[in-house]
Design goal:
alpha/beta, transport, 7 helices, 2 domains, ABC_transporter_ATP-bind, binds adenosine-5'-triphosphate, disordered C terminus, 33% helix, 268 residues, Rossmann fold, nucleotide-binding
């Protein structure tokens, strides 16, 4: 569904020589697959996602969607960011309807589609509220409903739940999995969290420094729904932490382990 073919990405800073963030990345995301991209801060996770979204273009190589080169953003690739960027002057329902109207839906078809996705995300009692009256978790739910309502083939998600408290995050992870299981969309999901990657992913792509952009790929073969305290789940987390700990010269890592005597941070 998404293919990165020998993709390299350079950035330029004030006339200095270019900095290579991704080097010769080859990655296939299969249709219906849930792929998490995990790695230290600054290793290029968002860059990878932005390339798939068509927000930027590779310095070298090609990014393909459904066999065709990505030439820019498109409704078949829905993007969810860390901060829900809703229109503050529109109600919840109107926020979801906005993109549908831009894509040509009108009248009751538009309203029915929007309501359907608000229901799916547990927002049916909040359709007439404005974003300022919603909690962070609810705002993020609206942002997801808004993207899902466009029925994209691929969801590109950049740390969508990282700003939320642990309970809300886990609830939204379950809601996302419920929607994903029902429709089996392809998901490319950037996270710092080992726990999140182990819970969500079919496959975890661990990214490293540019010369080793795709450091390791790990299939997560645990059955769903996953038990966060089960032995197999804990083992998967431990395996992922081991891979992260083996990364050469991390900038910052979030490997979910106590940071005693090291510079490693934990958010879990
Ligand atoms: N438009 C840009 N121009 C110049 N440098 C950039 C640009 N976008 C990203 N970078 C640099 O590229 C590197 C990778 O950034 P990117 O945001 O892809 O990493 P990341 O792994 O997503 O980081 P984080 O986990 O902190 O969000 C960083 O050093 C960043 O400063």
């Amino acid at each position: 569904m998404i293919r990165f073919e020998h993709v390299s990405q350079d950035y330029f800073h004030n006339g200095a020589s270019p900095v290579t963030v991704l080097a010769d990345v080859n990655l296939d995301v299969r249709e219906g697959e849930f792929v998490c991209v995990l790695g230290p801060s600054g290793c290029g996770k968002t860059t990878l996602l932005n390339l798939a979204a068509g927000f930027i273009f590779p310095s070298r190589g090609r990014v393909l969607f459904d066999g065709r080169a990505v030439a820019g953003p498109g409704p078949e690739r829905g993007v969810v960011f860390q901060d829900a960027t809703l229109f503050p002057w529109l109600s919840v329902a109107k926020n979801v309807e906005f993109g549908l109207a831009l894509n040509g839906l009108r009248g009751r078809f538009l309203r029915r589609r929007a309501r359907g996705y608000l229901d799916r995300l547990g927002l049916n009692g909040h359709a007439d509220k404005y974003p300022h009256a919603l909690s962070g978790g609810m705002r993020q739910r609206v942002a997801i409903a808004r993207v899902l309502a466009l029925e994209p083939k691929v969801l590109l998600m950049d740390e969508p739940f990282s700003a939320l408290d642990a309970n809300t995050r886990e609830r939204l992870q379950d809601e996302l999995l419920r929607v994903w299981t029902a429709r089996r969309r392809t998901v490319l999901y950037v996270t710092h969290s080992v726990e999140e990657a182990a819970y969500l992913a079919d496959r975890v792509v661990v990214m490293g420094p540019a010369e080793n952009s795709l450091f390791r790929q790990i299939e997560v073969i645990l059955p769903r729904p996953r038990n966060r305290s089960g032995a197999a789940f804990l083992k998967t987390k431990a395996a992922l932490r081991e891979v992260l700990a083996a990364l050469p010269c991390c900038i910052q890592t979030d490997i979910g382990a106590p940071a005693t005597g090291s510079t490693k941070r934990s958010r879990e």
